[in-house]
Amino acid sequence: MTQPTPYPQHTALSLAASGVPVLPLRRGKVPFGNCTTCADNACGGRPNMKVPGPCLCPAPCHAWAAATTDPAVIVSPAWSAAWRRAACVGYHPGDADLTVVDLDDSEAIAWACAALPATRTVPTTRGEHWIYRGTMASRNAVRPGVDIKSTMAYARWLGHGAGTIAALPDAVRALSVKELSPAPRAPQALSGLRTGGRGECPHRTPAFLERGVAMAEQRITEASSGVHATVYRTFLAVLSRHGRCGCLTDAHVARLFTAAQAKGESARHCTDAWTNARTALGL
What we know:
The chain is an alpha+beta fold. It is built from nine helices and ten strands.
C-alpha cells in the first residue's frame, strides 16, 4: 500500500514549485544535523557558501545550505525519512529573493509599524514576519526583538500571510550594518573625538541638541540585546545629526560614553565605536 505524503513534505513540494527553496525542520524549529559522513564538515561540504545547495550527500545536510527546489530531492528516500520526522518546513529567504524581518513581540511590531513601510505580514507564535522583496545580509538581534533572515539563513514557513510584498527598504538594510573593525591605535582623549569640523549650526536652540543627546542616552540604556551594535548605531546617529557644526562638547560625549559603559561596554570600545562612526561619516 502506498504511504501518504507527510504534510510537511506536501507543503515543501508546493513551495518548491513556486520557486521557494525548502528544507525540513525538526522539533524546536532547527534543521536536521549533518549525517555521520558530513559531521564536522568532513565531507568537504560548504556550509558557509553564499548560495544554497547540499554537498553530494543524499541527506538534508548543512542546514540552510541544503534548501532546494528540486522535487526529486524533496521526495528522495533520505529526505522522505526526514520529512516523516519533521515538525515543520523551513525555507531559505535569500535564494527566493526575500528578506524576513522577524518581530518577536508586540513592542517589536509597534516599532516596525512606525519605522518600516507596510508589506506582507505573517503571524508567528509570538509576533510577526514582515516579508520584503530583495536580499541582504542576515543578522540576529539588530534591535530588541528583531532578527533579519535573508542570505545564509533559514526561516520557518508559516503560510502566505496577508498584504502585498514591498521592495526591501533602506531602513531594513541599515539594521544589518556592522561596526567597522577598529585599527590598532593609541588611546585618544575625548577632546579629539568630538566633531569633524565647524559648519553652519542647525541647532536653533540649545534644547535641540540636548534633546538629541538625551534620546541617544535613552536608546543605549534601554538596549536589552545587541548592545555593541546599539552603541555604534546610536553614536552614528548622533554624529550624523550633530557632528558637523562643532556644537557637541566633551560633556555630551562623556554622557554617551557613560550610558554605554553602564551597559557593560569598555572605555576602549566606546572610543573605537565613536571613531568608527566618525570615519563612516567622513568626519
